[in-house]
Specification:
This protein has about 475 residues and is an alpha/beta fold. The chain is built from 15 helices and eleven strands. Helix 8 links the parallel strand 7 and strand 8. Helix 7 runs antiparallel to helix 15 and helix 9 crosses helix 12. It is globular, with a radius of gyration of 21 Å.
Amino acid sequence: MHTLSLRELADGLAKARFSSEELTRHFLARIAAHNPALNAYITVLEEQALAGARAADKQRSSGDVHPLTGVPFAHKDIFCTEGVRTSCGSKMLDNFIAPYNATVVEKMAAAGMINLGKTNMDEFAMGSSNETSFYGPVRNPWDTNCVPGGSSGGSAAAVAAGLAPAATGTDTGGSIRQPSALCNLTGLKPTYGRVSRYGMIAFASSLDQAGPMARTAEDAALMLQVMAGFDEKDSTSIDCTVPDYSASLNNSVKGKVIGVPREFFAEGLSDAVASRTRAALSEYEKMGAVLKDISLPHSHLSIPCYYVIAPAEASTNLSRYDGVRYGHRCDNPLDLADLYTRTREEGFGDEVKRRILVGTYALSAGFYDAYYRKAQRIRRLIKNDFTEAFKSVDIIAGPTSPSPAFALGEKVDDPLTMYLEDMYTIAVNLAGVPALSIPAGMVDNKPIGLQLIGRDFAEADILNAAHQFQLQTDWHKQFAPAFA
C-alpha cells in the first residue's frame, strides 16, 4: 500500500478495498521499522492516528465524506498542533506543546485526513540539508549517506521512503522544492498568500509559504485543494477564489510557451543535471509546447538579496524566544539580561545564531538603508523580471537544484556553498509566484528535479503541466530501492 499514490489510496478507501485503520496501521508499522534509519519523524502520533482512522471509517460507512477522509499523511513540525509537541526542529521549542491548531492543521483535520506525526526539519526552517535540526540529520532514502535537502527534509524522506503517502512542508527559499527534487517527489510552493500562515511558526514572514509534498502532481493538486483558501486570522492571506485544481490536470499543453531562462544554465549547474534537465524539457516539445529562450537578468542577485531580507525578518521573529513566555529557559538566571542571553545561547543552534546576527546587523542604525532597503529594491527588480517574462511565456522552467543530493557533512561547515543549493529557487519566493518541482530523471543514481514556475495564483497551470509530463514519463513512479 505504501507505493500507491494519494489518489489511489483515496480510491481504495472509497471502494472498501481496505479500511483507514488498516492503512494507518500499515504506515505506522513502516515508521517503526524504517524511521530509526532515516530520522524523518520527530513525533509519531500512533494512538491519535488510530483513533482518527477509526472515526474516519465510521464516517465513510455513514455516507457523504471528503475524498481524502481516512487517508494518512504527515505534518512538518513547524505547524502548531494542539496538544502535540511542536518543536520546529529546535532545542528552543523542544518542550513546547501547542495550545491551538494552525489553520493548515485545521483544514486537514476537517477533511478527515489522518496525521501520522510531525516530521523532522532544519532548525526554525533554516537550512538546505536538514542537518541543522536539534534532533539530528535526516537521511535521504535514495542514499542514506546523503542529505534529503531542507528545510522540509523530514517530510521529503518520509514520503520518499513510504512512511507517509504525502506530507505538508514550508518553503521560504526552496524548502519544499529542493528536498522534493533530491528525494524524487512532487513539491509545490503556492503563491504567497494562497495558503494561510496562521499557526505556522515564522522564519521570514514575507517569504514563508506552506505547500504539499507528494508523489505526483495529481496528489499535490488534491492536497492543495484542502490547504488553500482565505483566512481572516492571517493578515497576509489573499481573499480570492480557489479553483478546482484537479479539473484542469488533463488539459493539453500543446501551444503553451515555456520560457527557459539562460541564467539557469550558467556557471554553478552540474553538467549532468543540465543535460538531464534539457532532456526533460524536450518532453514538452514532444507534447506540442514551445520552448523559448528568455532572460531573468536580476536572478544572480537573488541569493545576496535573500540573505539580507530573510535573516532580517528572522531576527525580528525569533526575538520572541526570550525564556519568559514559552520554550527553553536557562537555569538560575542572575537577572533579566542573563536570562535573555543564556536562554538564546543555549536554545539556538549555530545556523540560527548566524542568521540572527546577520539580520540584526542589516537592520541596525546606519546600515538599514545600505542593506535592507537596498535588498527590498532589488527584490522589486526580481519581481519585475518575472512580470516581464510572463508577458511572452505561459510557464518558466529549469533545474530545481544545481546538483543531486550531496553527502552528509559535505557542506555543513561551509555556509556560503550551502546557500548556493537554493540558487534556482530563491527568486520565486522573493517574487511571491508559485512554483513546483517534479521528478525529472537520475544523475549518479540519485534523483533530480525540474522546476516549473507560474504566474501569480496560477497553480492550476503548473500542476497541469506537471501532470502532463508525468503522463509521458515514469520518473515519479520510481521508488527508493532500499525502502520498496
